[in-house]
Each structure stands twice: as structure tokens, then as C-alpha cells.
């Protein structure tokens, strides 16, 4: 299943090229279908959203039930257990504490000549969180509610909308409803897939449009976000999940195997890669993966992912491992090394880095504090985790005094004339000439 491949080698290059094919390709027919859904919602509004929802999710959903009512949320609190609430509130506190450090205030500067400049930092007015239903609503993605909602609330977004597909009976999982309420979501709409994204982006009679749409989803959701980008802001176009583990002889093979499987179980397109300096360790990891798979509920999914996009690369030293990792730019990077801290500064491209044997990727998914919405498919070369800044906009402020304009005016005129923009130059010249 996981065959050890020496790196560098031709075989390694072929494997890397195959893993790279996981990037979300442009399927013209599928993109056309999503575009048609968006246009239908834009044209027909609520009627289209209800029709799609009845067709794919809840056959008897009433038009008056598109938005969750307060009594549904109150009932949800009666259905969840107190242990869950304790866990949820602790996770929220951890995530809030981390993301609060991302808040940057407006700033201004003045000069003796009377020049005033600055930047006003303001939140967007409304943000939309898309949360997948998860197996018909029976496996609610609570962590996604936290990771998408908390940064928006800390940014100061006043209108926080959540869209999620309803269960067959038209209800929303109570655990998801409670999580949404706890993070400060102000409205919840029972709509999924591309039509849910369309309603958030364009607005309908029942769904007020938002300024930013964030959150995970299937290929229909990803393409819908791509197509509405520009109409609204989006977080990123996330591809299938991925993990890369760098390990030396010090590492525990059973830990590595468990962590590789934690991503492989997501999706048949998920990628799980080990880069190791030790062949004996690599062989033990392969054995442990095979053994742990037998006890995994999502065994079939994980097996397919490993067979298609799993890899085990053998390198001569940790330096080579890090160079290969930087080339791949993984979503999740684990450093299971004797001294991981000494190598942290060499990591150039990764969505998130997990250091040491006691830090499985799952702690970042749910509880530690940093965001789990991360760049995938090599985009960590230029993209970052979701954060407070995704819900903020910056407005420049400029005020020149007459003295400052007289000092800089001729230079501004010269630059404008070089660009062939006479009216720009004239707008300064008219002030200089009185």
C-alpha cells in the first residue's frame, strides 16, 4: 500500500506528479451546471432555493421554514448534553484567544507640514458561513462552525449568516445549531450546495446578501464560490485534505500511521505522505497503517486515498526532507523529529506546522486555537489560514496641506504626464497656480 520510494529519483517524480493531479480541475460541464444554478437563484430567488432544497435534501421543506426560528434553537439546547457544551465552550475560548491576536487597529500618522495619512480598518457588514451537512446531517461539522464563525465575530461583523443543508425532515442537527448560537451566528438558513452559495452572494427575499462567503464544501460548493468571487469575497478554494509527516528514527511508527489515516479517512482524494530518513521506521509505519486500517470505520475511504495518493519517500537527511516538503507546500505538516524546534525556521511553505510526538494534526482541527481552514494543493506557497483579516477591509485616509502640495506638486505633475494622464496633472497644476 505505502511503498518506500527513494528521493530524489524518477519514480519519486512520477509519484509527486500524480499527487499534484488532485488539484481542482476545470470541468467545463460541471462548471456550466453550477453557473446555471447560480443564475437560476439570481433570477428566481427563494423559489429556486426551495425547489433545489426539496429536490436534493428535504422534500417537504416549507417556504416559511427556510430560516431557522428561535424556538428551534431553544429546542436544540434541550437536546444536547452538558458535557458537549463544556467542550464546545472551552474550544471556543481557545480559538478566540488565538484569533484575538490577529486584530489590528486603524492607524494614522501626521507630519510637521500638515500631511495626514492613515488607514481605517473596518469589518465587512455581513458574512456568510457555509457548513456542509455531513451524512444527511447526522455528522455535523461543528469545528467548521467555530473556525469560520469566531474570526468573523472577533472582526466585528454584525450580520453573521450560516447556510447548511437541512436533514430529510427539514431540521438542522441540534449540535450544529447550538454551536452556531454559541459563536454568535445571527441567522441560519436551511440551504446547501451551489444554491446556498448563490443565495448568500446575491440575496433573495428571505436571505439578505452578504459581503464575504467562507467555509468548506464539495465540488459544487467550491465551483460556486469560484464563480461568485468578485461579487463577494471568498476565503480560498480548498481542495482535498492532505498531510505530510517528516520523521526520523526517533519517531513512533504507530503515531505516524494514525496521523496519516486521520487525513486519508476524509476523502478518496485525500493525500497522506511520509518523508523519512529511516527505512526501518518507514517499514514499521506501513505495517502499522495496515493494522490500524482494520479497526477504522471509514476503512474503504482511507484505503482508496492511500492507494491513490499516499506516498512514502526515503531521504538521506532531514535537510532533504524539508526541501521536499517546501516543494510540496502541504496543508498540514508534522515534524516528528528528535528536535523539531531546531528545524521550524527552515519551513517556508505549509498551511500549519505541528511539532513533536504529542501534537497530532487533530488538535489543530478542533481545539488548540489556530484555524483549521488552510491552503491546499500547494497554495501554501502564497496563501494563509483563514483568520480575522478575511472579514476586515482597509480604507486609506489622506489629507495634504497647501505646504505639502506645493512641495510635492511638480513631482506629481511630472509622473502624471509621463503616464499620459493630463487630467491628473491638471488637477494638481490648477491648485499650484491658484
Automatic annotation (TrEMBL):
Question: Which EC class is this protein assigned?
Answer: oxidoreductase
Q: Which family does it belong to?
A: Belongs to the histidinol dehydrogenase family.
Its lineage reads: Bacteria, Pseudomonadati, Thermodesulfobacteriota, Syntrophobacteria, Syntrophobacterales
**Keywords of this protein's UniProt record, alphabetized?**
Amino-acid biosynthesis, Histidine biosynthesis, Metal-binding, NAD, Oxidoreductase, Zinc
| Role according to the record | Catalyzes the sequential NAD-dependent oxidations of L-histidinol to L-histidinaldehyde and then to L-histidine.
Identify this protein by name: Histidinol dehydrogenase
The entry's Zn(2+)-binding residues are 263, 266, 365, 424
* GO MF annotation terms: histidinol dehydrogenase activity; NAD binding; zinc ion binding
Pathway(s) this gene product operates in, as recorded in its UniProt entry? Amino-acid biosynthesis; L-histidine biosynthesis; L-histidine from 5-phospho-alpha-D-ribose 1-diphosphate: step 9/9
Q: Which cofactor does it need?
A: Zn(2+)
Catalysis performed (reactions): L-histidinol + 2 NAD(+) + H2O = L-histidine + 2 NADH + 3 H(+)
Q: Which organism is it from?
A: Desulforhabdus amnigena
Give the EC number(s) under which this enzyme is classified. Answer: 1.1.1.23
Return the GO cellular component terms, semicolon-separated.
cytosol
Keyword hit for Oxidoreductase: yes
Q: Which residues form the active site?
A: 331-332
Picking any one GO biological process from the record gives:
L-histidine biosynthetic process
Which residues does the annotation say bind substrate? 241, 263, 266, 332, 365, 419, 424
UniProt key word NAD: yes
Cofactor binding mode, per the note? Binds 1 zinc ion per subunit.
Q: Which InterPro entries match?
A: Ald_DH/histidinol_DH, Histidinol_DH_CS, Histidinol_DH_monofunct, Hstdl_DH
Amino acid at each position: 500500500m505505502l511503498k518506500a520510494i527513494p528521493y530524489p529519483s524518477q519514480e519519486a517524480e512520477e509519484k509527486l506528479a500524480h499527487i499534484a493531479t488532485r488539484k481542482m480541475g476545470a470541468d467545463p460541464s460541471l462548471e456550466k451546471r453550477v453557473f446555471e444554478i447560480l443564475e437560476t437563484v439570481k433570477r428566481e430567488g427563494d423559489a429556486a432555493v426551495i425547489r433545489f432544497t426539496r429536490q436534493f435534501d428535504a422534500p417537504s421543506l416549507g417556504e416559511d421554514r427556510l430560516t431557522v426560528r428561535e424556538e428551534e434553537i431553544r429546542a436544540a439546547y434541550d437536546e444536547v448534553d452538558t458535557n458537549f457544551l463544556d467542550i464546545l465552550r472551552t474550544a471556543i475560548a481557545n480559538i478566540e484567544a488565538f484569533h484575538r491576536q490577529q486584530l489590528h487597529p486603524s492607524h494614522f500618522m501626521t507630519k510637521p507640514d500638515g500631511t495626514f495619512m492613515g488607514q481605517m480598518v473596518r469589518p465587512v457588514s455581513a458574512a456568510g458561513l457555509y457548513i456542509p451537512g455531513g451524512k444527511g446531517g447526522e455528522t455535523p461539522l461543528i469545528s467548521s462552525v467555530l473556525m469560520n464563525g469566531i474570526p468573523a465575530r472577533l472582526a466585528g461583523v454584525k450580520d453573521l449568516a450560516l447556510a447548511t443543508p437541512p436533514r430529510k425532515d427539514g431540521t438542522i442537527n441540534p449540535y450544529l445549531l447550538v454551536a452556531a448560537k454559541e459563536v454568535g451566528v445571527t441567522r441560519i438558513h436551511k440551504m446547501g450546495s451551489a444554491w446556498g452559495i448563490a443565495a448568500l452572494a446575491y440575496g433573495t427575499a428571505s436571505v439578505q446578501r452578504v459581503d464575504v462567503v467562507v467555509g468548506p464544501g464539495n465540488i459544487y460548493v467550491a465551483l460556486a464560490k469560484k464563480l461568485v468571487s468578485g461579487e463577494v469575497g471568498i476565503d480560498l478554494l480548498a481542495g482535498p485534505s492532505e498531510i505530510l509527516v517528516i520523521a526520523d528514527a526517533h519517531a513512533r511508527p504507530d503515531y505516524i500511521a494514525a496521523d496519516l489515516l486521520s487525513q486519508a479517512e476524509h476523502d478518496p482524494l485525500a493525500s497522506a505522505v511520509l518523508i523519512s530518513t529511516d527505512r526501518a521506521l518507514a517499514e514499521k509505519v506501513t505495517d502499522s497503517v495496515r493494522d490500524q486500517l482494520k479497526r477504522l470505520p471509514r476503512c474503504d475511504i482511507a484505503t482508496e486515498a492511500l492507494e491513490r495518493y499516499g506516498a512514502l519517500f526515503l531521504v538521506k537527511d532531514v535537510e532533504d526532507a524539508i526541501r521536499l516538503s517546501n516543494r510540496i507546500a502541504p496543508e498540514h505538516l508534522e515534524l516528528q523529529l528528535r528536535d523539531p524546534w531546531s528545524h521550524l525556521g527552515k519551513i517556508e511553505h505549509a498551511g500549519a506546522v505541528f511539532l513533536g510526538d504529542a501534537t497530532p494534526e487533530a488538535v489543530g482541527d478542533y481545539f488548540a486555537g489556530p484555524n483549521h481552514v488552510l491552503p491546499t494543493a500547494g497554495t501554501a506557497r502564497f496563501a494563509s489560514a483563514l483568520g480575522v483579516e478575511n472579514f476586515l477591509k482597509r480604507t486609506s485616509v489622506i489629507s495634504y496641506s497647501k505646504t505639502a502640495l506645493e512641495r510635492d506638486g511638480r513631482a506629481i505633475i511630472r509622473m502624471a504626464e509621463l503616464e499620459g494622464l493630463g487630467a491628473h496633472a491638471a488637477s494638481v497644476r490648477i491648485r499650484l497656480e491658484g
